[in-house]
TrEMBL record:
Residues 10-23 have a biased composition (Basic residues). Residues 1-56 are annotated as: Disordered. This is Large ribosomal subunit protein uL15. Keywords: Ribonucleoprotein, Ribosomal protein, RNA-binding, rRNA-binding. Part of the 50S ribosomal subunit. NCBIfam families: rplO_bact (TIGR01071). Residues 86-144 form the Large ribosomal subunit protein uL15/eL18 domain. Binds to the 23S rRNA. One of its GO terms (molecular function) is rRNA binding. GO terms for cellular component: cytosolic large ribosomal subunit. It comes from the Bacteria. GO terms for biological process: translation. The keyword Cell membrane does not apply.
Amino acid sequence: MSIFQLPSITKKKNRLGRGHGRNGGKSGRGQKGQKSRAGYSAKKGFEGGQTPLYMRFPKGRGVKQITPSQIKKPAVITLGVLRGFEAGSIVGPGQLHKRGYVQKKTDRVKLIGAGALEGAYTVRVHACTPGAKAAVEKSGGKVELIEIKNRD
């Protein structure tokens, strides 16, 4: 230092984070590691490499959806089938199964058709068209609807 230069009162600022030259430093990022690198941003739910909380729990099972193809359609019985039974008899899924009109006793049965019917029948089915019901009642019989119980 020469005689004409006065010593500086202010301290020179360290240029941090500019390489490993003079006063490179760590820029307040600590030592080495993922957080000290440029471009680091903590992702949502990131736990430092540990398996995140949302992955540690089992998946939700949800609700099983039933497609239209999985819904079993009822066995369709016409008024002509009733003519094969004796007049005054009770016709239900069990009797229709014995005669081979229905595959299983537990199958749902729907009565369809319109027109004349001879003889009074008591028909026990799960569903019935208005025309078929009118034809059975006109001949002196009656239609009893079987209630479907839910499996819930």
